[in-house]
Structure formats: structure tokens, C-alpha cells
Amino acid sequence: VNLSVALDTNDRAEMLRMVEDFRPQKLRTMREFAEQEIIIPEGQYAGLPFRLHRQPWAKVWFDEIESGRWTQFCNIGSRQGGKTFLGSTIPLLYHIFEMRETAIFAAPLDEQIADKWKLILKPAILSSKYRDLIPTRGSGARGGSSNLNAIEFLNGVTMKFMTGGGTDKSRASFTSRVLIVTEVDGFDVIGGTSAESTKLAQMEGCTASYDNRARRFYECTASIETGKIWTSYTKGSCSLLYSPCPKCECYVNLERGNLIGWQDAKNVIEAGQKARYRCPKCNGDWAEDERRDSMQQMKIVHRGQKILDNGEVTGDPPETETLGFRWTVAQNLFVTASTVGKEEFTAMREARGDEGELKMRQFWWALPAAPEADDMHQLTIEGIASRLFAARQGETVESVKYVTVGVDVQKKYLYWTAIAWRDSGGGYILDYGIDPVDSDHLAEEEAISQSLTTLRSRFEDGWLCPTDGEYHQPNYVFIDCGNWMQVICDFAKSCENIRRGVYQAVRGCGTGGDFTKKYTTPPKAKKRQLYIGQCMHQVEYDAKRTVVEIDADYWKSWLFARLASPPDAASALLLYTPERGKGHFTFGRHLTAEKREAKYVEGKGVHVSWNRVSKHNHWLDASYYAAAASWPAGVRLAGEPKDPSPKEGPEPEQPKATEKITATRPDGRSWYDIGRRSVK
Ligand SMILES: [Zn+2]
Predict the structure, then answer these.
(1) Are 219 and 366 spatial neighbours (Cβ–Cβ below 8 Å)?
(2) Which of 139, 296, 463, 588 sits CB 3.0–4.6 Å from 381 for a disulfide?
(3) pTM (two decimals)
(4) pLDDT digits over 369-390, tens only?
């Protein structure tokens, strides 16, 4: 073939590359490639050649990849077992260096891409014979790892990076046969704003023109049942791994229920000593070395297939292009039964039981969060409106210990909610309202400030308890300063002369759609130690602005858990009994204006956030500010930590009828303004 005919230089280069590609060469399988080329860059086998027998599920995994049966490969596995290395790193290196074809490597966040490149991919390449193919210049070069967009290796092959960030165009315009996605559940924002899942779909679109010759690899720990990895797994081949029992020789699949011995241990050491796997067929106990031998004979069974006791697999695999490959800590030879037993023992005793359980399911047993954890606290308008407490609007009762108020500030209205808290930790919504802001005639700042002043005088009058004639003033009033920060901070400061520390400018921080800032816990020891409470803390932005930042996701969940408790539970939150002919429906509509969404967060498991489904959510904001204000006031539920708060020391002074109170810390200082304590 004479290539020089009528080709410009670009065409020519392309043609030469094609000729190169078509030159007969024996391509190795991914398994052969892995064993011949990959040197383990880190961990207990660092520096040694990759060997399948160390982690036998890898053998089955590679065989399935080579089978030609699947287009998509989903790897769900436990921690510390090579999930990322086998599920994404080796496939990526194989396609780049052996197949010499473009591959897209994707992760939800930019920083994840930078991390994976720096900590996993680059070390793996550097320890292989392909190290000299890393370009010496550009962002992907040996030194750098920031602003990763693509790396063109010196063999002419491009590794394209994609994340949930960036423009849609950057994803839509690229074409590649190979897509490899790590931490894939991070793309899910389940059921809510579909922007993130759309981004993953756009990446998948890059492989569309290859039809069933495309190869898409996904890898993750299972997050929730509706997450990408779990739905792909269950709708795909939904495969399980079986291996022969050392006692009865039958092929069995080990799951969480087959790890025994740790449950009745007296302490964690005993849990580790007693933990062992027990055969579901013959109840024989497996020693660790027996488990090692058994796993070498592992077989995969797809949905709809059966495995006979002798290991013969019968039946046809399901009609799907997706391999759903799941292995748990029971098939993970890097982790012993003893270690898992200790983890189980500890997790069961963790203060927040759900989190321990979640961790075990996701990180060790490759299972998504139990569905209850995901579905709870979805409230209905009717449900909220029917939770009535025997008090009329604005009435307190003798058992009321604290009153807290939240105010949501809008351009034309102030929405506020007042909650009365009883000794039990539960309480009732004592009053709520909407007050006009005259921003049509006054400057916004002035109008807001004026309306707040009017509202304050009502709050300072207090709410009457008809049986003892006492008035309850609010212990704390949290005022949203999200949109008018300086106005609200100034207003809060002006309240210092009325009752010190009671009126606070607050800012909701969260992961849902409306937030401009995520909530982050402040470091414990700071130079000027401002107040730190449960999922809230005080920050001094500058001399004129001191703000309480609140974890909106936490406090909304907390509020909703109270509103979802059985009405007679100690921690239940109810609503005052409205007058005849009136209901709480509008209020209920505001409270249900956001939908709870569970989302997978790398390293943390499932994170709950709230996303707006209706724009009328102002009383929800006001109510969760009031709920959050219960913490500094001293409201505690059974099991909640008792960290810095007035309640830890002597009882705080109770607000009473006409008495001007100051919220104080145990040592007598106002807990809120340590930074300004010279004011006294
Ligand atoms: Zn057995």
C-alpha cells in the first residue's frame, strides 16, 4: 500500500497508526497482562509481581471479562481487598498499554481524580515497564497532578479524565470504547436533582457508537439500594461466588450470617479469637487456612443459574450485558475471620448503632444500607397537620422548659416558628407566623430591620401559660442571615442590650440544592474558641459579623425524626391545636417542601441531604433553626452527647415572665460571645 498518495500529514499519521494497530500481534488477555506486567505498588505485597492466587476472586473476575459475554462490568466489594486495583486500575492500564486504545477514567469529584492518579495509577505505572511512557511535560507528567484533563502517553494513547465537574460539552464530545468509573455511586443524587446522574449518562454516551463492543467498568462499595452500583448489580447478572466447604466438600456461598462466634464474646479480643466461618450446609467450622484453600476453587453463579454440591453450574446466564460481580470480606483473603469478628463486635457497640451497622454492610459485606435507613422520616402534610398537642396557639404549659425560635428572612416576609420544649426532650410547635417586610416603601435593609424589631417585642412579651400565669420568653432566637448577612448581624448585635446572647445570626450550611456552603466541623482547638455545639458552631467572619453556622442536613433530619416519632413518644414533636376551621395545612406544606435524599459520600458512607421540591419551604427553614436552637438551650434526647452546653454545669436560669435573662455558660459567661466578653 502506498500511503503517501493524497494524504495530508494528519491523515497520514492517522493512517500509519491504523496500520500499526492492524499489524498482527498477539494481544494478551487482561489476566495474562496483569500477571506478566503489574507490580504491586503498595500494601503487604508491595514490589512483588501481581499474582491471582493471593486474591482468588480476581481469577473469576478476569475470566468473566474475557468471556465476551458482557459489555458492562460492575465490581462491588469489601474494603481492603483490591476492589479499586482490580476493578479499575488494571483494566485501565490494560486498555492503555496492551490494547493501546483511548480510555476514559472517571470519578465524581475532581479531587478524586487527582488522588487516584497520584496515589494509585501513577505508582502502578511507575512500578511497571511502562513507566517510560509517562509524558515528561504537561499536567499528567511525573511531577504534577493538578488540573488533570487528559494524559497522552508516549505510545500515542490518551487517557481522558472526566468528573462530575466541568461542562456537559467536555463530556458529550468525546468518543472512546472504554469507560472506567471509580466510586460510581458518588454520581448518584438519588431521586433528586438528576444533574449528577445525567453526567454519568453523558460519559456512557461517549461509548455509545461502539455498541456492544464497548467496555464500561464500574467499581464502588454498595451505598444504597437505589444507587448505581447496586441497581446495576441486581439488574445485571447478580452473580455470587461459591467455593467448596473443607468439611463436607459442598459448594457454598459465605455471607454475613455465616460468620459466628463473635456475637457472645465478652470483649473485642475474645470476639477476634472466637470468630470463624461456619458452613451453611454441614455447620462445620472453617479454619483460616481451609478458607484460603477453598477460595482457590471459587466458582461464579449468575442469576438464574444453580450450583450443584459438586460445583457443577447449571442453567443459562441471564440475558443481560452487565456483569454484576460481588465479593465480600468472606471471599477477601487479605482480611481474616478474626479481624471481621472484632469489627462486628465493635460496630455493634458503637454509640450510634446505625452507623456501625451501615459500615459493616457497606465496607465489609458489600451490601447497601438497609432500606429502613433510607425511607424513614418522609412526612406527609396530613401527617404533620394531625399531630396535635393539647394547647392553643401561643399557649405554653407548665412542663415547658425552654422556648426556641427560628426566623427565615425573605424580602417581603419574615417566617418564624416557635417551639416549646418539655423536660422529656420532646415538645410542640407553640406558634408560628408570617410578618410583612415593607420592602416596597423602604430600603430592604431598613425594612427587614424594622420588621425584626416589631417581631422581637412580641417575642420579648413571651408566651403565656394560662394555668400558672407565667410568660415564657425565648431562650434563643436563631435568625437566618443567608441573604442579608450584615443586616442580621447588626440586628443581633443591637439585641445585646435587650437580652444578651439570645438573638443570633445563623447560616444554614448543607449539601442540598440551595446551599452555597457545605457544613464542616471546625477544628477543636482554635485561638479564639467560639461556641461549638452539635453540628453547629459560631464563627467570627470579621469584627462586624459573628454567625452561627448550622449543619442544615443534620438539623432537618433531627427535626423530621421528632415529627415522625409516635405522638406519645418522649422525643415526639407535636403542633398546637388550631382553632376550629383552621388547620396546619399551609405550614405542613412548607415542612414537606423538601425531600430527604440519601447520597453516597466517599469515605463516609451514606449522607442524607434535603432537596427542595417546592419553593414554599420557609417555615421548614424557620422550624429547623428553632430545632437547632434547642441544643444551646439545653434540650437533650436520650443518647445524645452532652458536650459544651449550659446543661453540663449548673442549670441555666429559666426565662420568666418579666425577668430579663441572659443565657450563660456553666462559669457564668455568656456562652455565645466569648470573643466579646470584655463587654461583660
Ligand atoms: Zn460444609
Answers:
(1) no
(2) 588
(3) 0.60
(4) 876 544 455 677 888 888 899 9
